[in-house]
Fold this sequence. Notes:
Chain A is of the alpha/beta class. The first copy, chain A, contains twelve helices and 15 strands.
Amino acid sequence: MPAGLSRFGAEERRRLAVEACRMLERLRRHGAGPDGSVSRLVYTPEWQAAMDEVALWLSEGGLEVRTDAVGSRFGRLAGELPEVVLTGSHMDSVRGGGAYDGVLGVVMAGCAVRWLAAHLGRPRRTLEVFANCEEESSRFHCNFWGSRALAGLIEPGESERLRDASGTSLAEAMSACGFDPARIPEARRSDLVAYLEPHIEQGPVLFQANQVIGVVDRIVGLRMLTVDLDGMAGHAGTIPMAHRRDALTGAAEVALGTERIARRRGAPTVATVGSLVVQPGGFNQVPGAAELTIDFRHPEEQVLDELESELRQLVAGVAASRNLTARVERRLGQRPVHFDERLCAALEAACAEAAVPWRRMPSHAGHDAQLIGTLCPAAMFFVPSRDGHSHRPDERTEPEHIGAGIEVLVRALVQIAYAEP
Amino acid sequence: MPAGLSRFGAEERRRLAVEACRMLERLRRHGAGPDGSVSRLVYTPEWQAAMDEVALWLSEGGLEVRTDAVGSRFGRLAGELPEVVLTGSHMDSVRGGGAYDGVLGVVMAGCAVRWLAAHLGRPRRTLEVFANCEEESSRFHCNFWGSRALAGLIEPGESERLRDASGTSLAEAMSACGFDPARIPEARRSDLVAYLEPHIEQGPVLFQANQVIGVVDRIVGLRMLTVDLDGMAGHAGTIPMAHRRDALTGAAEVALGTERIARRRGAPTVATVGSLVVQPGGFNQVPGAAELTIDFRHPEEQVLDELESELRQLVAGVAASRNLTARVERRLGQRPVHFDERLCAALEAACAEAAVPWRRMPSHAGHDAQLIGTLCPAAMFFVPSRDGHSHRPDERTEPEHIGAGIEVLVRALVQIAYAEP
């Protein structure tokens, strides 16, 4: 163990937590709403200000800062080898989100690499902090924009095609910030050998179990479907109950049946009907049409297939019994992603060294690590979300957990970037 | 029986049906959509054109035409007495409605009174055809505007307060058509002694029973409620099923429970969840809030009280079992309306004389007759709606049923307006 790590203790962790929280406070001003929320959408002035602020901070810590073709920032601590161990997360937020989702991972990575630069000096492998420009799709439907750029997974013409709610194309928004859409392919990386992403859990598991670190060994698969039901609209007074072909009551049976499917299967299965829209929607009209969305998540693709099949049977049964016509369409399928076992083991060893309570767990949300994992071994770890909240103004992670997380990241990076092979 | 009635037979009925259908075709041009729909909203140019067209037609039939302060037209056949027997319905439509709802009642009334003017001449009581300006609330939330004006039930300031979707006030819309909102009180009538309203059924009862006339002796009561459920929004992936407080699945239970309440009670109870809106509504978000509307209808106020009470129990149970907060609010209550028994008997006698298959039935929808019934004895009769449809482009009543309905109305008006007391 490098001698510098012996500095770690309660005091050092607290010092790092203070540094991280101070940085979080500086960043949350960019896009702050009156209700304590943060809305920091890619290529907006507040995003630009936050990116500049984080770049300055990394640079003050002795890191060499670079901006890539899509606007992500990298704070580099050059090692003996050119191969890069990357760590960080995304800087953008959802609309009306909080100050922790994404940005806490950048700040923890920055604190860790700044600490390493100061106390352990030059690593064997090069270290880079990743302040990813975009992950949330909150302005454009460009999910994982920054990490897709690294992985070379942005399609030609995509920046012209995608538009925000006001009609501005992603390409125009980039240009307004000084980035040339034609140069997007230059963001592609071929020098990455590992990626570690710290992130808030966004769920209640660690918080309720009083654990501090979740070593994330996989991201569950996702299957999104829409169900359209068509019946017969009519007057709420004049159509007797027995003559109705009510699309809304059919949709209600599908929603409850979907919940039953997930509960029957048990954890970690989750199923969500997030949207239900009925037509015509009048107070005094029997609904003639309903559209609902279904979101299934599970770590195994095979189970997702079974869940989809159960849903299709459910919908067919509801449609038959209520004399509705039904259409089920698969809108999105993301296969489960398995992270690198050696990196997970390094994180577990780091937790053990730091004497931090941890568990292995899957992520039920998508993250940059699944994209960067197509380029190089990748893994993630979670810190607790108070009450399991995220994407809300009151999302929060306790400073002591932030300090512990930074220590774990430092210790993992030491194993990966400083240790002899 | 006046001698003129002996003219009636298959041929006379067919002739009247042709006249009525020709008038319906002329009127459906005003507000016609490319899909065969009719959207004729009050105080629009298409409404104005239809009102002018109907006025011209009544005038051509020898009736003295007058426009009241809110724009309703009256075609008068003066009798020996100044007291007025009124018959007709409304000229406006819902958005995307058909060519029959409302306007068929005006046309049938016009055909009947024109026929009486031509064949029986001066009645004892004065007859008036009522072409009501507005009933549907399809532009402003001004339900029963024209008949409320007759009944003196428009509140001071209402025309300034009510606005359409584009922000135009009802008062502005009136003024644009040449009506002075300050003169609304002048529309009030004190000379009415009877009101007979022909209308399409808007339900499947007559159509399926192969009956031609429904003598409507009451309008069921209506109880409209909203249910608000609040749970906890969250990420569709990261919140385990057991930790959810999903407002949408709660709302689905309320919707199905509402249906069960109506079915358990049996016909003629109807209950409708017409609108269900969830927040935040994203594909990948557990819904944190849901609002649904409940519409109960039944001929007895006591039963409506019981239905509301059952609903409140249902909602409380769902909220408790799902850890949601719930609020149930009564938005509208219309007590059941009982029509005049002597007028119903006159309609039944007319059906018997005309040898038309008929039944007594309640109306499950609100109609002008319930407002005018506060001024004078009132009743209604229905003609069949093909497949029970209404408020749709394909709503339709067969010409033979229209002809039979006109004969029934003629015979009823003879009893009410021509016969000696």
